[in-house]
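wait is this the right file?? whatever heres the structure
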């Protein structure tokens, strides 16, 4: 059995800094059940830390405050990777964004290949904003700038 990796490879680091969408997995604070939510405001601060922003009203913030262990699933070039770690609150409210966003870091504990045997991801999933593109681009710019200042 191979040892788990705890730092991002060049490919994963690059993929996380191209504004991907990922799946964020937490433990529900009320039920104790696993949760999974798609998020897009995420980037790699360095090879051992991810940073992401969430709506301040999101249950995810309560979940990670209650149980800090979380994971992120990334659809990477050719594969699916799951990044496990401990969430840490960076800012309760990001500055210079039009609504309350909470910012977390995920300190990476391990990275594992989550693709099933005998297959590779031939095309990475894509997403598109369903509202005004200019407004979406402006908001994304504000959020990423605020996360980098946090």
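ok assuming it is, sequence goes like this
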């Amino acid at each position: 059995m191979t040892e788990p990796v705890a730092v991002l490879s060049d490919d994963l680091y690059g993929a996380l800094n191209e504004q991907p969408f990922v799946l964020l997995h937490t433990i529900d604070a009320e039920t104790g059940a696993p949760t999974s939510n798609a998020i897009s405001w995420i980037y790699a601060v360095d090879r051992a830390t991810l940073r992401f922003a969430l709506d301040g009203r999101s249950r995810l913030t309560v979940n990670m405050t209650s149980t800090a262990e979380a994971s992120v699933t990334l659809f990477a070039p050719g594969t699916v990777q799951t990044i496990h770690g401990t969430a840490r609150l960076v800012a309760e409210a990001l500055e210079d964004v039009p609504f309350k966003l909470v910012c977390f870091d995920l300190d990476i504990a391990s990275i594992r290949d989550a693709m099933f045997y005998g297959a590779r991801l031939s095309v990475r999933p894509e997403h598109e904003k369903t509202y005004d593109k200019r407004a979406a681009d402006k908001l994304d710019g504000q959020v990423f700038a605020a996360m980098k200042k946090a």
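Residues 95 and 146 are 6 Å apart (CA to CA). so i think its the right one actually
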